[in-house]
Amino acid sequence: MRFFVSVDNLSVRFEAAKPVHAVNGVSFDLAEGEVLGLLGESGSGKSVTLRALMRLHPDKVTRYGGAIRVDGQDVLGMAPTALDSFRGKTCAMVFQDPILAFDPVYSLGRQISETIRRHEAVDQATARARAVELLERVQVPSARRRYDAYPHEVSGGMRQRAMIALALACRPRLLLADEPTTALDATVQIQVLLLLRELQKEMGMSVIFVTHDIGVAAEISDRLAVMYGGRIIEQGPLAEVMREPSHPYTQGLLASTVTAGMRGRRLEAIPGMPPDLTALPPGCAFAPRCGLAVDACRAAAPLPVSAGGRQVACVRAAFPGTTKIPRPARDDTAHADHQTSLISLPVPEGPRC
Amino acid sequence: MLGYLLKRLTYTVPITLAVTVVCFLLVHIAPGDPLNAVAPADAPAEVVEALKAAYGFDRPLPVQYAKWLGRAVAGDLGRSVATGRPVAGEVLSAVGNTLLLAVVGGAAGFLGGTLLGCLAGYFHKTRIDRVASAISVVGVSVPHYWLGLLLTIIFSARLNWLPAMGAGPGGSGNWTWDLAHARHLVLPAITLSVIPMGIITRTVRALVAEVLSQEFVQALRAKGLRDGQVFTHVAKNVAPTALAVMGVQLGYLIGGSILVETVFAWPGTGFLLNIAIFQRDLPLLQGAILVLCLVFVGLNLLVDLIQPFIDPRMRRN
Asked: Which of the listed ranges A318-332, B159-173, B246-260 does the model predict with the highest average pLDDT?
């Protein structure tokens, strides 16, 4: 099977007095129309991975390794002009904070029509009409008037909708979403999330969705990849990873989620701090915080092991059906799902943990 | 928008009034009696009294001020003590000459500064940046009368390429646009352009580097915009602040540089002020300062009025 997006052993290093090893051997594949949730805490390398897919990091200080192929094109080897045409046309990005991602001195509509005119030979009037249409499609009220509004004149939710309209302006086949709901109010978050899911289905785009919020990831993804210390430590179909996490870190993450019926009980937490990307340990980056770590974990970074569409990089991990590893103890009344958003999760029913 | 313009216009009224008060009081704050310049120290008392009455110095200050202001509004700034010619005419012709020098020197400085600043900001923390920043530091720090003298020695005395003095052949004060006059403009304009060049370089460098580090520049690249298109966005973000700084600099330039104009004997306001101070020609001094202050106020107003056309964030509040 040929995948639409194929990332092979990607590494990203930022040159500095102490080089930052932000991404260290990330591999994943994504089919057309599939949504990948890239989950991880701050500094896990999820946003760096996402921006590397467009080669957005400053050329001067960034060293890439491995390979990225999108729609058969070699992103890391592309000539600058080909890269400019690829950006915004084949592949577009929704940024985390639209107030920072819009140019403050250009009107919202102008920034959308500018993108259209960059990639398609249309005149200003046509581009304007298309931009208004897009604004209407993302449910911006009185879109014609909002076309001329400046970013500081509309609300946060409206700005993010406009940002989505901008990203979709040239009907990209791959949408990169960098925590697009993090800067928004909880209620607006859900609206934007639902809108994104709807547009994804309608346009059949592939989406890579970066988030630190399990609830959000569960809401939108088909597949889930969990990142830690610049590596994907576990990936697989969303429901399976949520139901039976294999990696101790994923288990810890799921265990530390607030669920229904937990009032009065202490929240599980993963002890310790995220790793320092300028001085990663030679072994598994999670080993210093892992209760199950053995000498083998600290000796060398574990290679990912695949089985049945799932993949995990852990010496101690076991897939369902093979040897079980002890899971962090959880109250057995905590049968409730890992629901953190207000809308229901597409997680199949069944016993958890 | 209209409200902002009106408000900004209204603000200039008290500022202008304050300026006239200060200019008027200058004569009375300055050490020594204003009559010292006219009457000899041993003049008989009745002569002094007669002079006082003639100049109106025997009236209370507010009355003097009102009369002076009334005449100033009508364009009458009195007569020069030294030459006896009307101050208004002297000052206006000097302002014309200084304006010419300021606009040409300022344009050169702003152009060079913008260019260097963009280069330095775009290639932030590279060798290009360091060279451009070094030029700007030298530009700001070098004493420009010294630079003026140096240029005169090299290009006038040694090489004999350009004239060293005056605003035209034969010391004529009447400017015309021809090569003979333009040759006189070159050295003073270059000398004058050095400081604004340095300041604009520093300002633009900092602004460009700051804008380039913002997230939206990455977003513009993510849309597939080419370098030139991205730069248009950067320029539009940098322009309001850069223009404000240029406005202030142009204000200083139009104020006239006493040192540069004296070095090149350029018949502008700086040169005029120099003469007025040394000859204790108080009406001339007063008139010149008043006109310069008003020019400064007007220029700041102009900059403030232009800004909202460039920066949409200033339009609706």
From this structure: B246-260
pLDDT the model gives residue A211: 93
CA dist B121 and B84 (Å) reads 54
Which chain B residue has its CA at the smallest distance from A83's CA? B224
Quote the minimal CA–CA distance from A77 to chain B in Å: 17
**Element spanning A29, H or E:** strand A20-30
CB atoms A104 and B313 under 8 Å: yes
Find which of B217, B218, B221, B223 to mutate to test the A interface (most A CBs within 10 Å of its CB). Answer: B223
Residue A15, pLDDT > 90, answer yes
How confident is the model over A114-131, as pLDDT tens digits? Answer: 999 999 999 999 999 999
A311-346 core/surface letters (b: 16 or more CB in 10 A; e: else): bbbbbbbebeeeeeeeeeebeeebeebbbbbeeebe
Find the farthest-apart pair of alpha carbons in chain A and give their distance in angstroms, rounded: 66
SS3 A58: coil
Q: Within 10 A of A108 (CB to CB), how many other CB atoms are there? A: 29
Question: Region B32-42: what's the mean pLDDT?
Answer: 68
Encoding tokens for residue B137?
A: 């530091």
Helix (H, G, I), strand (E, B) or coil at A128: helix
Tokens, residue A333: 């009344």
Question: Which candidate, A56, A151, A148, places its Cα nearest to that of A100?
Answer: A151
For A151-222, where are the E strands, in sequence order? 174-178, 206-211
For tokens 């909708």, the residue is A161
Average of per-residue pLDDT values in chain A: 86
Q: Which fold has domain B95-314?
A: MetI-like fold (1.10.3720)
User: Please, are residues A20 and A14 in contact by the beta-carbon 8 Å criterion?
Assistant: yes
Measured torsion, CA atoms of residues B32, B36, B41, B42, in degrees rounded to the nearest 10: -130
ipTM exceeding the 0.85 mark = no
